[in-house]
Amino acid sequence: MGIEPRRVAGEDDPLRRLAALLARLPGIGEKSALRLALAIVRSDAEYARGLAEAIGEVHSMMRKCRVCCDLSPREVCSICADPTRDARLVCVVAQPQDRMAIERAGVFRGRYHVLHGVLDPLAGIGPAELDVAALLERLRSHVEGPPIEEVIVATSPNVEGDATAIYLARLLGPLGVAVTRIASGVAVGGELEYADVTTLHRALQERRSL
């Protein structure tokens, strides 16, 4: 009697399929994806169902806030709807995680605008790919409150972030609004989302005009 050949897992293997899908997430390599997939398999059924439901809900419910373009389950996000926030002060960030980092620091009580990217010609990302038009509309319409007096550009201090800041300064300057840039404290070449509370506090307090 011959030895049955070992079955090779292919695309029909649910574990490998899950690992392959997880590996498509940013920062997740093949080994990490397989570890996560195995952890899900070994978890209890209630957790697995909850995880699947949460993924489905976040994909179907999250949308861009019609004011600031941040991700929100509602048409207007909680920050834009908060009357205690200073609507005259808008902090422009590249991604939702940058806004979350500043909120964790607890040093900013204005509102935000999320670009969902930075200028990167080599990657084919120009002004049309960013939510700049919505920012211009906010500055011109004043529908959501008093006129905006200052725009703080809080993009990461790297080549793409600096290019985006300069572009916004040139675009917004003629509209009569003060355009400032977060100051020292955030390492050059670093990413804003990884900055600690003290660093973000200093960067916001020592912002400068562009």
What does it look like?
The chain starts with 13 loop residues before the first helix and ends with a strand. With 210 residues, the protein is α/β, with parallel strands linked by helices. A five-stranded mixed β-sheet has the order 4-3-5-6-7. The chain is globular and about 60 Å long. 39% of the residues lie in helices and 13% in strands. Helix 1 packs across helix 2 and helix 4 packs across helix 7. It is built from seven helices and seven strands, in the order αααβββαβαβαβαβ. Helix 6 links the parallel strand 5 and strand 6.
Overall shape: it is: globular
Radius of gyration equals 22 Å
Structural class: alpha/beta
Query: Are there runs of 5+ residues with pLDDT below 50, and where?
Result: 1-10
Q: What string, H for helix and E for strand, traces the elements in order?
A: HHHEEEHEHEHEHE
- Tell me the total number of β-strands: 7
| Main β sheet profile | 5 strands, mixed
Distance between the termini: 80 Å
Helical stretch tally: 7
pLDDT averaged residue by residue = 88
Query: Helicity, in percent?
Result: 25-40%
